[in-house]
Structure formats: structure tokens, C-alpha cells
Design goal:
- Strands 1, 4, 5, 6, 7, 8, 9, 10 and 11 form a 9-stranded antiparallel β-sheet that branches.
- The protein has helices spanning 122-132, 153-157, 161-168, 172-177, 187-198, 201-206, 219-224, 239-242, 257-261, 286-290; strands spanning 5-7, 17-18, 22-23, 28-31, 34-41, 44-51, 54-64, 70-79, 82-93, 97-100, 117-119, 133-134, 137-138, 141-142, 148-149, 293-295, 302-304.
- The protein is globular, with a radius of gyration of 22 Å.
- It has 319 residues and is an alpha+beta fold.
- 21% of the residues lie in helices and 25% in strands.
- A hairpin with a 2-residue loop joins strand 8 (70-79) and strand 9 (82-93).
- It has 3 domains: 5-146, no CATH class; 153-177, no CATH class; 182-304, no CATH class.
């Protein structure tokens, strides 16, 4: 299970710490006309925004993000019987502390009611929870009260009741047919499958951050730009060629060398796939040169570019 969210049901934001990302560098922030702070007691945690003598607060119901780079708060309040969901105006970044949430504009003075964050439409909330939680939508109907923190088996493999029942009765072939196995998808469908959450080329086209380093976080889109990707190159090159979705992400560059060398041959030797020879500059830590890291504006972190290529000195970010 990938821990991509936390359901806040108590004072998880203890003094000086976040429930997942470790030490918080700041629990307060002056952002434009508003002063933000996180308030916690035995009943739970709140995001509080103040301007002069005016103050507004909302319960922190969820924390989205694994905490490696940062975490954003999901706030909830009730208007009559209607549950309103908001994406917080501020987020907590692992290497920086609290700052404005990427994609948010500063709230103008005198607009206290909007200072805490942006209200999410049902469709926007469904997309947010659909990638960070499991079971938030059933039969295409979004229900945040049913969401389970983290990405569990059925988030990728689909409903598993029939699969489990077939296993219990020894019907192995029927069990295989009763569950989705993304590993059998063709290269295009495989990358698009992961891109349902990690973003595809369509998301780039439809997004306001189509150009510039912000789209380095759209890994499937970047991978598809690679000369050696899928139908244009080696069909083995999909997301799961390098990443095991059932394991914690490996971050050491050297651990990916064997993946590169499974396709690229050492100098002077041929490779059964006819692929290009290994880089003449080095035979280790391939990704440090051919998949460089870029700073993403407002994210206070570097992200690996999955556009695999020969990187030229002083080249601008290639869209």
C-alpha cells in the first residue's frame, strides 16, 4: 500500500511535527494579508487564518501527500446538510516548511472567507481522493465518507470480491479473469494506466502548467517523449520496467543501472534487442545524467525528469 494520504481523526499535528513527514520547519506563515497557523488539541487539528482582528478556521480532515516533498491539507465544513471540501491555501514542504499551495494565488485582503483555501467541486474532489485514497468513489459516485487512506490493492486492480471467492474455491483460471492485471497492458495503455494519477500528455494539454518545469511531475508524459519509449522504441520501457508498484520507491540512482543495461549493451558488444550501446561517458549512475532533476517552482524540491535523453550542456528545459 502506498501511503499517499492520512485521515485526520485526532491531534496528529503534534507541536513541531507532522504525522508523516517528520519535523515541521514552521507551523505558522505570514502570506500576503493573512497569518496562517495550525492549531491542535485533543479534538483534532485546524488551519487558522487571521487578518487584523478577524479570524477564520476549519478542521483539517485529511492530509494529502506522502510527506517526501510536501503535504497539503483537505479541510471540511458543513453548510446545512452539505459537506464542503477545500484544498488548503497553504501546504507544508519537507525542506522548506509552510508556504502557498502550488497552483494557488494569494488571497486578496478583505476576502477572509476564501483565505483558508479553494473550495473543490465534486468532480475535482473525486479526482483528488481518487488518486490519494481508495474506495472514495463507488459506481462513479463520490463519497468522501467512504474513503480509506492510502492506495490499496483495489485502487489499481479493481473490485476483488469475485477474485477472492474464486481463489477460495480453487478456480485459479476464473480468479485470474475476475481481476484486472495492469502488467498485461500494452506499452501505451500501461503508461496511460499509471498516468491516470501521474498525468499523461492529455493532462498536460488540458492543464494550465503545460509548459515549463512544472510538468516534470507528469512522469508518464515525460517518459512518452523519450526516443526509446514503447511503440517507438523498446516495448519493455514502461513505468513498471523500472518501478515496482508494490514496493517503496527506490531513490538511489545506482539501483537503476541494471535496468538501463538490460537494454543497452556495453561498448564493443551487440545487444540482442539491437538497442543503442551504453553511454561512452560512464557505465554507472545513468539516471543522474540522462534523467536530470529540475526544481519545480513553488514545490521547494527537485523532481526527476523521465524524458530519457542525451542532455546537452546549458540546454533549457525541453517541453
Amino acid at each position: 500500500m502506498a501511503l499517499a494520504s492520512i485521515k485526520v481523526e485526532g491531534p496528529v499535528l503534534a507541536e513541531g511535527q507532522s504525522s508523516l513527514s517528520g519535523t515541521m520547519k514552521a507551523r505558522t506563515l505570514q502570506l500576503g494579508a493573512y497569518f496562517y497557523r495550525i492549531s491542535s488539541d485533543y479534538r483534532g487539528s485546524k488551519l487558522v487564518a487571521s487578518s487584523g482582528r478577524q479570524t477564520i478556521a476549519a478542521d483539517i480532515s485529511w492530509i494529502m501527500g506522502a510527506g517526501v516533498h510536501g503535504q497539503t491539507y483537505i479541510l471540511e465544513n458543513m453548510t446545512g446538510k452539505k459537506r464542503n471540501v477545500y484544498e488548503s491555501e497553504v501546504s507544508n514542504f519537507a525542506l522548506h516548511g509552510m508556504d502557498v499551495t502550488p497552483g494557488h494565488a494569494l488571497v486578496e485582503a478583505g476576502n477572509l472567507k476564501n483565505a483558508l483555501g479553494e473550495r473543490l467541486s465534486t468532480s475535482a474532489a473525486a479526482r483528488c481522493f481518487g488518486c490519494h485514497t481508495t474506495y472514495s468513489s463507488t459506481n462513479s459516485k463520490f463519497d468522501v465518507s467512504r474513503a480509506v487512506p492510502g492506495v490499496h490493492c483495489e485502487a489499481c486492480h479493481g473490485p476483488g470480491v469475485d477474485h477472492i471467492e474464486a481463489i477460495k474455491t480453487g478456480q485459479i483460471e476464473e480468479a485470474a479473469k475476475a481481476i484486472l492485471n495492469p502488467a498485461v497492458l500494452n506499452p501505451v495503455d500501461s503508461v496511460d494506466f499509471c498516468g491516470a494519477c501521474h498525468r499523461t500528455a492529455i493532462d498536460v494539454v488540458e492543464s494550465e502548467v503545460s509548459y515549463g518545469p512544472m510538468n516534470v511531475r507528469f512522469q508518464p508524459y515525460r517518459l512518452e517523449k523519450s526516443r526509446c519509449w514503447g511503440s517507438r522504441g523498446d516495448e519493455r520501457l514502461t513505468c513498471i520496467a523500472c518501478h515496482n508498484p508494490h514496493e517503496v520507491l527506490i531513490r538511489e540512482a545506482s539501483s537503476y543501472d541494471r535496468r538501463c543495461l538490460s537494454c543497452h549493451a556495453p561498448q564493443g558488444k551487440s545487444h540482442p534487442t539491437g538497442a543503442a550501446p551504453i553511454c561512452p561517458k560512464a557505465g554507472t549512475n545513468c539516471t543522474t545524467c540522462h534523467m536530470p532533476k529540475y526544481d519545480v517552482p513553488g514545490m521547494h524540491a527537485k523532481f526527476t525528469d523521465h524524458f530519457i535523453r542525451v542532455v546537452r550542456a546549458d540546454e533549457s528545459y525541453p517541453n
